[in-house]
Amino acid sequence: MHGKEKELKGDMKKLCNHYSHYHAKVKMQDGMEYEGIIMDSDDEHMSMIIPQEVEEDEGPDMNRQYGRYRYRRFGRFFFPLAGIAALSLIPYYRPYPYYPYYPPYYY
Question: Membrane-spanning regions, if any (predicted)?
Answer without folding.
Answer: 74-93
